[in-house]
Amino acid sequence: MSAGRPRTFFHCHPAEGDPGVLLDPDQQVTEPWGEPEHGPCDKCEGAGTAVYECFSCMEAGSEPDCPACQGRVRFEQTCPTCQGSGEIHRTRRRGIAVFPKREGLYRYLAWKSDADVEGKVVVELTGELSDDCDLDADHGALLIFPRELVSVEPLDAGSVRSITDRTGEEEEAGE
Ligand SMILES: [Zn+2]
Ligand SMILES: [Zn+2]
């Protein structure tokens, strides 16, 4: 850990919403966008492990003390969605989904085919890491219990689109 300024994390939030709700412990849970899906895991196809790619380090350069990948950037680890069982049982997770770098959040939104990036803000937060893991931890998403709002800035939808043009987005799941 570097001394001085505490580490901050980046979260995407609706512009019309009050980012202050992120500080409410009762609301510090994350659920998937759209319908919660239970059953066979579509992320690892039952293998129980997934290839992790830290979007923050891929976009902003790898960092040995990155809280998402510890500088590993690409590695294989227990699938975050089924937690190794091959079946999805639990989609509600403890904490707010964040990225350790703004660039990682942008890359994630570019990759996520159902992300709506209009009318959103990027909220920079401090907080404690949750011991739970985000459903998209394999892309370097973390869960934190936010403590303090550091800044709120408009999300630049044009930047997200240009990353999509450069890197492509996820394949549609299912058949
Ligand atoms: Zn990383
Ligand atoms: Zn899985």
SSE map:
Elements: E1 9-14, E2 29-30, E3 39-40, E4 49-53, H1 55-60, E5 74-78, E6 87-88, E7 93-94, E8 96-98, H2 102-111, E9 120-129, E10 142-154, H3 157-167
Antiparallel strand pairs: 1-9, 2-7, 3-6, 4-5, 8-10, 9-10
Helix pairs in contact: 2-3
This protein binds zinc ion (2 copies).
Describe the structure.
With 175 residues, the chain is of the alpha+beta class. 15% of the residues lie in helices and 29% in strands. The protein contains 3 helices and 10 strands. The chain has helices at 55-60, 102-111, 157-167; strands at 9-14, 29-30, 39-40, 49-53, 74-78, 87-88, 93-94, 96-98, 120-129, 142-154. A 4-stranded antiparallel sheet has the order 1-9-10-8, with no helix packed on it. Strands 2-7 form a two-stranded antiparallel ribbon. A two-stranded antiparallel ribbon has the order 3-6. Helix 2 (102-111) packs across helix 3 (157-167). The chain starts with 8 loop residues before the first strand and ends in an 8-residue tail after the last helix. The structure holds zinc ion (ZN) (2 copies). One zinc ion binds at residues 41, 43-44, 79, 81-82, 86.
